[in-house]
Specification:
The protein is mainly alpha-helical. The protein has one domain (about 1-274). The protein contains nine helices and no strands. It has helices at about 1-5, 20-40, 45-75, 90-100, 105-130, 140-160, 170-190, 215-220, 225-274. Helix 3 (about 45-75) runs antiparallel to helix 4, helix 5 (about 105-130) crosses helix 6 and helix 5 crosses helix 9. The longest helix is centred in the C-terminal third of the chain and has 51 residues, at about 225-274. It is globular. About 30% of the residues are buried.
Length: about 270
C-alpha cells in the first residue's frame, strides 16, 4: 500500500492564486456544478438520497486517500493529527451519509440549510482565497479543488431543488447546526490538544489561528475573543450569501405571481368579450 501512495506522489509546482490552473478550474468546475445542480433540481426524495449518498461516498473515499497519502508519503508513516477531518468543509462528508438514514423531515431541513448556507459559503470562499488548496502534489491539489467544488454543487443543488433557502428564517436553522458542529470541533480540540497542531474550525484554545488578521487578533486579544469574532464573521458571511440567493428566489417568485395574475386577467377579459 505504501508503494501505491508513493507511486501517486506526482510532484508539481503549487498553482498560483488566480493563475491559469486556478481560474480554469473555477470557471469550468463552476459551470459544471451549476448545470449539474440545475439538471438534478427535480429529483424526488429517493433520487435525492442517491445524489447525496454518491456525493458523500466520493468525499469519504477521497478523504481516505488524502489521510493515507499524508501518512505514507508526507509524514513517512506517522499520522498528522492536524489534518483530522473535522473542519467546516469536512462536515458535509458526514452529513451527506447521515441524511440517508434520517427520516425526520425537520432534522433534514436543518441539515440541508446548513449545507447550503455554510458549506456552500465555505466552498465558494475557498476559491476566493485558494492558498490552502494549492499543494506540491497533483493528487492533493486536485483533491482540494474538487472537494470544494463538490461543496458548491451540493449547496446549489439543495437550493435549486427547493430543499434549502426557502424562507428567510431557514438560515437560522443552518446557524443551529453550525454552532453544534463548533461545539463538536472544540471537543476534538481539547481532547487532542497533545497531538500537535489540532485546530478544528480554527477555534482551538491551544493553537493560534492560521488565518491572516485572525492570527494577529488571536495573539493580541486571546483565543476566546478571536473565536467569537471568527465565528461571527463566518455567520455574517454565510448570511450575506444565503440572503442574496434567497432574495433572488423571492424576486423570481414575485415576478411569476405578477405574470400569472396578468395572464388570469387577460383570460377573464377574453372570456367576458366572448
Amino acid at each position: 500500500m505504501q508503494e501505491f501512495f508513493k507511486w501517486t506522489a506526482w510532484e508539481m509546482t503549487p498553482p498560483q492564486s488566480y493563475g491559469l490552473f486556478h481560474i480554469l478550474f473555477v470557471v469550468i468546475g463552476g459551470i459544471v456544478a451549476v448545470l449539474l445542480a440545475w439538471f438534478l433540481r427535480r429529483a424526488n426524495d429517493k433520487q435525492n438520497k442517491i445524489i447525496l449518498g454518491v456525493a458523500g461516498g466520493f468525499l469519504i473515499l477521497t478523504e481516505l486517500y488524502k489521510q493515507l497519502f499524508y501518512f505514507y508519503v508526507v509524514k513517512d508513516c506517522e499520522y498528522s493529527w492536524w489534518i483530522f477531518p473535522f473542519q467546516l468543509c469536512s462536515v458535509p462528508m458526514y452529513l451527506c451519509i447521515l441524511c440517508l438514514f434520517i427520516k425526520n423531515e425537520k432534522v433534514l431541513n436543518y441539515i440541508y440549510n446548513f449545507m447550503f448556507a455554510f458549506n456552500f459559503f465555505g466552498g465558494a470562499i475557498s476559491f476566493a482565497e485558494p492558498s490552502g488548496l494549492n499543494h506540491s502534489y497533483w493528487t492533493l491539489t486536485l483533491h482540494a479543488y474538487t472537494w470544494h467544488m463538490i461543496l458548491v454543487f451540493i449547496g446549489l443543488y439543495l437550493f435549486f431543488s427547493g430543499r434549502a433557502g426557502q424562507n428567510w428564517y431557514d438560515f437560522f436553522k443552518g446557524v443551529v447546526v453550525f454552532l453544534i458542529c463548533c461545539c463538536v470541533a472544540q471537543i476534538f480540540n481539547v481532547a487532542l490538544k497533545d497531538k500537535g497542531g489540532v485546530n478544528m474550525f480554527y477555534i482551538s484554545p491551544y493553537v493560534n489561528s492560521p488565518i491572516f488578521f485572525f492570527d494577529n487578533f488571536n495573539r493580541q486579544y486571546g483565543w476566546f475573543a478571536n473565536m467569537c469574532l471568527y465565528l461571527t464573521a463566518i455567520i455574517l458571511g454565510a448570511g450575506i450569501m444565503y440572503y442574496a440567493f434567497w432574495g433572488i428566489r423571492e424576486l423570481i417568485r414575485k415576478n411569476r405571481r405578477k405574470s400569472d395574475d396578468s395572464t388570469d386577467m387577460i383570460l377573464k377579459i377574453v372570456k367576458t368579450d366572448i
